[in-house]
Amino acid sequence: MKKLNISNLKKTYGKYENKVHALDGINLEIEPNKFTAIIGPSGSGKSTLLHCMAGLDKPTSGNVYLDDVDIYTLNDDELSKIRRDEFGFIFQSYNLIPVINVYDNITLPISIDGKKEDKKYINALIEKLGISNQINKFPNELSGGQQQRVAIARALANKPSIIFADEPTGNLDSKTTDEVMDILKVCVKEFNQTLVMITHNSDIAKMADKVITIADGKIL
Ligand code: ADP
Ligand code: MG
Q1: pTM of this prediction exceeds 0.90
Q2: Ligand 2 centre distance from Cα of residue 53 (Å)
Q3: CA 50 distance to own-chain centroid
Q4: What is the extent of the structural domain holding 82?
């Protein structure tokens, strides 16, 4: 299992009097095979932190180490290879491709990579997520909860070692939220994956092994 280490991370947006210190010196170790929850007020820097640690947004200064690799010293191709091979992403908006069916949405990251999907694993994932009857449908034929399950299946399709989730249950009712959390807990407990999740939901934060609170770009 890969370990993520964040050292003195800073991110500023804008210039001069409009300058915003979204991250102001974050030091953090994400423990492998655990569920880390990130909480904090709106605008405190949670999404910026998640994007920086997931290789999606280059910090202004500081380092993000995946094991011994300082990911922002890599070139674009190397960094996107890490994102594809090691990371899975789940956002509040599902970002499914409307013109291809559910199955193809799930396996898209693998086919983009020119690889062949592990059909047995993908089918087990589809089964576990309760979307077996939806795989030939298009995203707009599904409810919000079903679309989020598809997005989760897509995030897990490449068996990532770290799953990054930015308020994944923000648009879901409480029953669907529980079901989605059950699946993500299985990822950590049974598949030995690492989960880093931003949430506003204190019940979800209580499930975490570790809770990080962010305010004004700093860890409290
Ligand atoms: P959170 O996810 O905790 O709500 P964000 O990380 O989205 O917070 O934002 C942290 C701060 O950085 C906020 O003040 C926000 O307005 C600012 N910010 C985020 N993204 C951008 C951007 N692309 N350009 C300018 N400012 C941004
Ligand atoms: Mg956010």
Answers
A1: yes
A2: 14
A3: 8
A4: 4-219
Residues with CB under 6 A from ligand 1: 13-14, 20, 22, 40, 42-48
CA 180, 31, 45, 43 torsion-angle sign: positive
**Predicted pLDDT at 114:** 86
The Cα–Cα gap between 18 and 21 comes to: 10
Mutation choice for ligand 1 from 13, 47, 60, 197, CB with most ligand atoms inside 8 A:
13
Contacting residues for 167 by C-beta, under 8 A, at least 6 apart: 91, 92, 198, 199, 200
Ligand 1 test: best mutation among 9, 23, 39, 48, most atoms within 8 Å of CB? 48
**Cα→Cα distances 151→1, 65, 92, 96, 123, Å:** 23, 26, 10, 7, 15
Look at the chain and report how many structural domains it folds into. Answer: 1
Q: What is the CATH number of the domain that holds 48?
A: 3.40.50.300
pLDDT digits (tens, 9 = 90+) for 47-66: 999 999 999 999 999 999 99
With pLDDT > 70 as the criterion, what percentage of the chain qualifies? 100
Are 96 and 150 in contact by the 8 Å Cβ rule? The answer is yes
